[in-house]
Amino acid sequence: MHIKFDLKVFIFVLIFFISGNIKSYLLLMLFAILHECGHILAGFLCGLKVQSLEIMPVGIKVLFKIDMINYNKKIKKANLLALKKLIVAIAGPLVNLLFVMLFIILDKEYIVGVESDILIYVNVLIFLFNMLIIYPLDGGRILKNIIYIFKGKENSLRVTNIVSNVFAILVSIFTFYLSIISKNFIFILVLMYIWIIVVKENKVYSIKIKMYKILRNNIAINKD
Fold first, then answer.
1. Cα distances (Å, whole numbers) of residue 80 to 22, 67, 71, 117, 152
2. Beta-carbon contacts of residue 55 (< 8 Å; ≥ 6 apart)
3. How far apart are CA 87 and CA 145, in angstroms?
């Protein structure tokens, strides 16, 4: 298992520290890590092995080992794997919802020295952020694997890419407006992070689509 560290974490820490929001950021990181623990536990229960962990500005990114032979050639096994990945994607946001329910049930003003309202707010924020239908956030992963099961891998790539870009534009408009009325430009920082991953995934998507075109041309040539 490989462990990576994104140096942009230091930039986020510095910005949140200067803006006086370092406590909120540390809470976000704590529950984001617990969120990823949900993914890891679900992956373990589904028989998946962790390939790498990457410490990022908004938590930890977990990658699981995938048997590409089964994933690409055997439809039944590919669909089963997509179902497992769907369960893993849902598990993370579910952890944050469980924390929200727990803090509401406890009904205490302070929990471990922190206001319960803040803990609820942090978990709701992490849940909503990860459920954005933008790949590779959990919302995008859920959409991709649902489409994969019913329509196949290539369709899942195309639809997820289109929806991700449209959703990113809508989120950008809302976030920009929110940052102006609240005068809190931390939202712009998060928006920049979203577009970094969107641009990165667009490049990966272009490469995969080109590979599919080459494969189809080769198959057509062999048939001729």
1. 42, 12, 9, 40, 12
2. 3, 4, 5, 6, 9
3. 9
Q: Are 99 and 31 in contact (CB under 8 A)?
A: yes
Rg, Å, the chain Cα set: 19
Q: Give the model's pLDDT for residue 224.
A: 52
Cα separation, 153 vs 151, in Å, equals 7
- 127 vs 121: CA distance, rounded Å: 10
State the pTM of this model.
0.81
Quote the strand ranges of the chain, DSSP E: 2-5, 50-56, 59-64, 110-111, 114-115
Read off the DSSP letter of residue 60: E
- Measure the CA dihedral 108/110/115/121, to 10°: -40
CB 25 within 8 A of CB 12: yes
Give dist(CA 38, CA 191) in Å, integer: 25
User: Alpha-carbon distance 151 to 168, whole Å?
Assistant: 24
Q: State residue 61 phi and psi, 5-degree precision.
A: -100, 125
Which residues of the chain are under the pLDDT cut of 50? 70-71
Q: Which residues contact 195 (CB under 8 A, 6 or more apart)?
A: 168, 172
